[in-house]
Amino acid sequence: MELFLFLFFLVFFGLVVAVFTYYMKILFFSAKSNYRREELTEIRGDVLRIFLNLLESNGNILYGSLTFLGTAIFVWVWSLLGSVLGEKGPGIFEHIFHLPIFFLALFFSYPIIKEAYQGTSILGLTKPALSGLALGNLSSGAVHYGLDRDLYFLFYLLLFFLQAPVLVFLWNQESILGVSFEPTPSYESNTDWENETEGQGEERFPMDPINEEDNPFAEESEPYGLGDDPFSDEFK
């Protein structure tokens, strides 16, 4: 029962955040100022596209989906420890195990991860991983609050307003606190290819120093320098 409710809220919150993402895109992140009525009301296709886009990892929907579901279920199982260790009703263990610890850890450590794994495909898993951790936390919190009232409502609102805006910026491919979560391509292979090409060019066309004896213009000298006038007086 709890697993079914968890998956239901996972899809529900994913679609809700996708709706916010779409309207934030057209209101704040788009240069377009005039929209047709259909663009503001008929948004089902765009919302579904945004939701499915988070499941991709560098164009691979299998790896992205597994990462998203894996991180979401991991957060749900982690939240169950609060019910096992704590008592019935709102308690300290319930709130501790519902804190978005893993979401915040990945969010703030991403600059270090990006620098360490620059140009690798592992960075493409960041978006589905962050989305799974955030939506999994919100879904597990909704299940525990709805069934057993194990969380305070204000605490759950804090979880929502802490993670949902980050997902909106993330799904709109916008920088968050000056950090871009979109993987950048690596040009190391191109640099190696250019160096190899330059090396081959030097082997084919070696640059030998010019021999002054073989230079036909070596004995010629300029009849006038910078201070001389090349034109005769009759042209003045």
Brief overview:
With 236 residues, the chain is mainly alpha-helical. It has nine helices and no strands.
SS-derived structural category: mainly alpha
The H-and-E topology, N to C, reads as HHHHHHHHH
Q: Give the distance, in angstroms, between the N- and C-terminal Cα atoms.
A: 104 Å
What share of residues is helical?
A: 55-70%
Q: What's the story with the biggest beta sheet?
A: none
Count the beta strands: 0
Number of domains: 1
C-alpha geometry? globular
Q: Output the number of helix runs.
A: 9
Mean pLDDT: 80
Percentage of residues in strands: under 5%
- CA radius of gyration is 31 Å
Low-confidence stretches: 186-194, 201-205, 222-227
Keywords: Membrane, Transmembrane, Transmembrane helix
What does this structure look like?
With 236 residues, the chain is an all-alpha fold. The chain has one domain. Helix content is 62%, strand content 0%. The chain has nine helices and no strands. The longest helix is centred in the N-terminal third of the chain and has 26 residues. It is globular. It starts with a helix and ends in a 32-residue tail after the last helix. Keywords: Membrane, Transmembrane, Transmembrane helix.
